[in-house]
Amino acid sequence: xxxxxxxxxxxxxxxxxxxxxxxxVVLLGMTYSQVDMxxxxxxxxxxxxxxxxxxxxxxxxxxxxxxxxxxxRRIFNSKVHxxxxxxxxxxVIYTVVFNGFSEYFFWEEFGKRFNFIAVDYLVYTxxxxxxxxxxxxIPLLLVIIFILTAGIFxxxxxxxxxxxxxxxxxxxxxxxxxxxxxxxxxxxLFFMVLDKQTxxxxxxxxxxxxxxKNGLYSLFSAFRHNELDYDEFYKTLDNKKxxxxxxxxxxRKERTFKTNNLYDITQVVKGNGSPKKYNIVLIMxxxxxxxxLGVYGDKRxxxxxxxxxxxxxxxFNNLYATGTRTVRGMEAVTLSLPPTPGRSIVKRPDCxxxxxxxxIFKKLGYENKFIYAGHGYFDNMNYFFxxxxxxxxxxxxxxxxxxxxxNVWGVCDEDLFNKVSKEADKSYQHKxxxxxxxxxxxxxxxxxxxxxxxxxxxHTGRSxxxxxxxxxxxxxxxxxxKKPWFDNTIFVIVxxxxxxxxxxxxxxxxxxxxxxxxxxxxxxxPRTVSKLSSxxxxxxxxxxxxGQSYEAKFYGDDIxxxxxxxxxxxxxxxxxxxxxxxxxxxxxxxxxxxxxxxxKQTLYSVEYKxxxxxxxxxxxxxxxxxxxxxxxxHNLLRQKRP
Length: 642
Fold this sequence. Notes:
By secondary structure, the protein is α/β, with parallel strands linked by helices. 45% of the residues lie in helices and 14% in strands. The longest helix has 32 residues, at 79-110.
């Protein structure tokens, strides 16, 4: 059978598989010490990997195969078409090589193949493209990719008989159709049979799992699955049992459930003593992991001011982030809700009028503002906050005279904090208590900031971003201490998430630990609190400090109360974990449950021993996450309209 014109497809398959193989080898070399290097595990990595590479390339070729079937012979054999086809062929090879380089840098940042984060990045092209341009030597990389592509193309075109076999053929339509249908049947079969890259789960080590994947396939799989229906993908219990157990788990001395409705978790919280209306400035710091702070044992000296602040604050040193994205931290703090599978509620289109802390403070007479250094349309932040009790102050509200330095993510932290002070001045002049939710950006790649501020040059890595943020916060407090509203203000500093999410296990507990400072020198006595706690506990604790009575559908509670239940919720967009009693119980989207006993945890690593979970651990973990998903899905987390 003459298959000349389909030489394009067969040759591209070989090139695709070869580039994918080389990419996998390079990524393995980057994390050599983290990978299970036994012969059997490596065999699984590369055999499963080749299979998914083939699946990916079958999808990649669909449009081109259809074209090869239907383009007439007279056009296909024309000189113009030959030139155009070879240019397209060159471009396609270029994209494959480009993808290999992209995966290198994505792996360097996240320790994973393309996932839902990459999907988000494709949506927010302005920020991402500029971030990439500011972070990497793009012109040089593009030239290198071009040279490599040219070499592959030259060898394939000149050193083989490809150019003759591909064009110098006469193939009737019927024959083209038969061959083309064989090519097209493969991606159709894969689409019907395969869901996600589940074969990779046969590799126990998470890095081995990621290596066995194909990046492009992972990208499109993430696009399809970044919203996961809990009932479909996770282990479930009867809803009545779940909510009955949830009421038990949420019950506390100082709060009662408003109704007898099992599915209504509205709690009436009774304040203690005389309620206060202190101003609140909550600073959510980008990627401020515990591992960067000297107060946790880090020796690099990146946070000298925050380390001193810990001794002057109510400092919570055993608090954990709920996720690995900024919007997860925002969700946990404002809604006091465990992470639901898939994307954060902040990013979902139907996220308005939630039972947010913004409405609670509004009822107490506060002026609420979400103050962001960048453009708040990113990750749907402006929509979420503006529809949940906050006014918006973002990059568009900064005058040119208020900006001394900026990058693609927004103004530098110093400029941001200057704006925070100005907005506080306005509220003070209006004689209104204020709640400012502030989100920083300087500790984010490309880690650029004004020169001459710290002893680490700008654009040299995360260490500089951390130290500059530390510097900017200290400068903010020095300036704020001169303001008339300072003595009546509680400052809260917390990270949005950890500085990295890669690890040998799907939920590396140590990476989720973040600091929480509550600083108010005229109001709060300094001390360190070591109770295990979660981001969802921040607002109940803060409202407890204020002594306020309120109604809310919170999963968190006051850490300072004697009956605080010590546990932490941690997750990524698929795995959902409950950490308590030094044990992590994790739910997976294949309806399985894993249980890990932490045998050793340091600032930079954790060691686990996998063991069978108790029925109580499984039931409680399912209760928290199934109920949260149920409440959101059935619109039961809404703020009731007056």
